[in-house]
Each structure stands twice: as C-alpha cells, then as structure tokens.
C-alpha cells in the first residue's frame, strides 16, 4: 500500500485530498425537496444545483529550487541497468523538469474550498491545500478566477481561511449545519475538484463517526463512502438539508484513488477554528496544563473504578500559565465543563474548544471518590511559544535533598528499592526536585520488568498515596493485596522528573 502521510492516510499537498466511493441503491420516489427516503435519494439534482456555485477550486503555485539548490526532490534509488534508468535520468537530471542546476521552477497544485460568507468573501479550505503556497487563486464554477489572501491557517485541524474580493464576483455562500446530529447511515453529498477535473458531485452515507486516524491531536473525523479523491480536499460534505457538516480532508488509498474510505473534519470542531482564524488570524485554544494517559482496565481496577472512562492525569506541566493547582497527578478526569470525558482522546479536544481564561469545573475521581475542582484555563499557543524558546525544562529549582533515616533496600514486585539520598541521586543522575523511592534493580521476567520499569526510575506514589521510603512501598503493596486488588498503580518519575503511570501485578 502506498500512503501519503506517516499515519497511512493520504492528504494531498500537491493536488489536494479526499474521501471514498459509493454505489447507488434502488430508485426512490421522485425527489422534490431535500429529504431522506428509506431507499436513498432518487436524485440530488436540486440540492447540488443550489450549491455548486458556492464550491470553488483552489489553485496554488510556489517556486521550488531546481537540482543543486539543496531543496530538490532526490532521485529515487533504482537498480543499475533498470529499464527505467533513462526515464529517471531525463526527469531528475539537469535538463529535466528541475531545469538548469540551481534554477527555480513553478509548481502548481489544485484543491477545493467553499464560500461561507458572500458579503465578506470568506472561503474555507484545508491547510495542506495552500501550505507553502506563494500565490493562491480561487476558480469559480463559471470559469472566472480571483486572487485570494490567506487570513489564517491551523495545522492541527488542517483548516485554512481565505479572503477574496466580493465586489469582483457574485458569490454564493453555504451554511454550516450541526454535525453532532448526523448519524451513521445518513446520506451525504460531497462537492469538490477531484484530479483537477472541476466541480464534481458524489453521494454516499456516513460510514462512521469519531474516527481517529492519528493525523493530529484532535482527530474526530466523520468517515464517509461518498466518492472523494485527490483534489477534493477542502471541499464540503453536505447533509440532505444542504448544510455543511464536514470539510473533506483525507482518504485511505492503496492507489491514490477512492476505495470508499474517506474522512471529513466535523463542523462541531471546524466552526470554532474557522471563527478564530477569521477574527484573529490564528487559533486561541484553551490549555489545561496537564499530561494525561488512557485509563486501561488495569488502571481502572487498581483505582477501584468500574469502567475505563476518563483521562488519567500523569502530571502537571510546569510553566503552563494555567491555574490548575487543584488537580493532582493520579486524578482521573471524567467530566470537563459539563462534558463527559469518555477517554483520554476526548480531553484535549474539549479543552481546546474552551475559551482562554475561562474558569471551568472539572470532575475527577480521586482515591475512589468523585470530586469537583475549579481550573482557570491558559492558552495553548502561549505555552508552545514558550517551549520553543526554552532550551530546557529545568526551572533552576534548588530543593533540599535531606531525607529522614530509611531502610537501606527492599525487594518488592521484582524491584530492588532504595532511599533516594544524595548517593543515589548522583549514581542515577536524578534531578534535585524528584522525590520518592528509587528503583536500583529490576529482576528479569518479573511483574515490574513486564511494565518496562528500569533502574533509576523513582516511585512517587502507589494507588494515589505518596511513598517516601522502601518500607512505605512494601506496606502499601501489602495493603493492596489484603484489599484483594490485582494490580498496583505506580506513579513513576524519570531521572528528569517526567511522570508516567504503570500498573503492576501484585498477585
């Protein structure tokens, strides 16, 4: 299989991307209004006619340096004497498409977009359609063209907003619908520019919702089989009321064409990003300032939870400009600002959609009890800029390393443990602000080895109770056994203080 991205999903940066194929079913009664028939729509002609003019082709161009400039595409590695050797020599050589050595050439690409505000001339498309473009041009269904200005783009959701002069062309806009109301099996219609052919209409159904294709931190795609191919990227996905419920963005494809599996960004995510890009030229996402892990079956059992709902807080991010001190490592966030958190993937998306500076209520499970805490959100982008400037996470903390007398060493769960004194800090190069009990050895094939616990890691707490000595660890594990627990939830700190949770069998 040939894929266009690291995740195995095609996105077209050079000729935009798209979504899947469909076969039409039995003919339904004559189509009169945009309604859904049990057998499927007999025709979407009226629906398409009123929206074709709102969907545009987005054409981009950029200067690419030719061979010898350091930016050229490298020549593919092929066997010596291959029948294709001459072809590749011609194409990639000094006289090929790259032109003379060091010369630049003009590269063009095509994608799709749609008008969302006719009065202001606002067009929505995918970020990867216009990425690195020197010039952007919008082509209309009647053949006319207008230069476009980039108002803003967002890599994380793959969205971009363009502006054209509304006085130079009569514009038709489409409206956003509520993608949350869309159900699996609902009919949808896609319009786009596949393979640069021009406005093309396809019909299919919603195949699935809430798909994660590992393309970004906020994946929540609508999957559809409405035929979408290269060049459809940035085009709209309509419901049968003619409302946009998604922005087509990616396909799974072994050949570069549609096989009936494609993805659209739902409007429940896209609208807030588009509004921010229009107003500010950038996104302004809420930021909780925590590191999270999934709640696995083992974690749920070790915390006495009946289900794996929620997101486990692995630690608070230092310097995160967030008032989040009421949240503690080991908390399981099950509700954020009234929204249920089903899994760890839900939390970043819900937080990002929240206003910066808003004080929200967060429901957590802490030591087997449900508690509500308040947090004032920071801004994610501010933290990311700070991280880019900082060469290290070291905050220069100089905390005392004095420890009370502790037992020298104990063996627990296949680990040899020792007090974290100055000698151990020096031996394992452990940061001064890390506190707990250090792991000095791990027995092969032990419960700890199964979870890849390594010497030099520090046990900070067990089952949400802090441990300060090897004896504390031993007593806590014995207590869990007496309670009938099968696993112990360990919070581990790395040498630099980065936290993670693991569950270790105590049986």
UniProtKB/TrEMBL annotation:
Active site: 128 (charge relay system), 158 (charge relay system), 233 (charge relay system)
UniProt superkingdom: Bacteria
Class of enzymatic activity (EC top level): hydrolase
Any one GO MF annotation of this record: serine-type endopeptidase activity
Protein EC: 3.4.21.107
Residues holding substrate: 128, 158, 231-233
GO biological process: proteolysis
Keyword field: Hydrolase, Periplasm, Protease, Repeat, Serine protease, Signal, Stress response
Pfam families membership: PDZ_2 (PF13180), Trypsin_2 (PF13365)
An annotated GO cellular component: periplasmic space
Matching SUPFAM superfamilies: PDZ domain-like (SSF50156), Trypsin-like serine proteases (SSF50494)
Transmembrane segments: none
Stretch list, region Disordered: 386-409
Catalytic activity: Acts on substrates that are at least partially unfolded. The cleavage site P1 residue is normally between a pair of hydrophobic residues, such as Val-|-Val
Compartment(s) where it occurs, according to its Swiss-Prot or TrEMBL record: Periplasm
Domain PDZ: 277-368, 413-507
NCBIfam families: degP_htrA_DO
Family membership noted in the UniProt record: Belongs to the peptidase S1C family.
Family annotation (PANTHER family): PERIPLASMIC SERINE ENDOPROTEASE DEGP-LIKE-RELATED (PTHR22939:SF130), SERINE PROTEASE FAMILY S1C HTRA-RELATED (PTHR22939)
Name of the protein in question: Probable periplasmic serine endoprotease DegP-like
Native source organism of the sequence: Phyllobacterium phragmitis
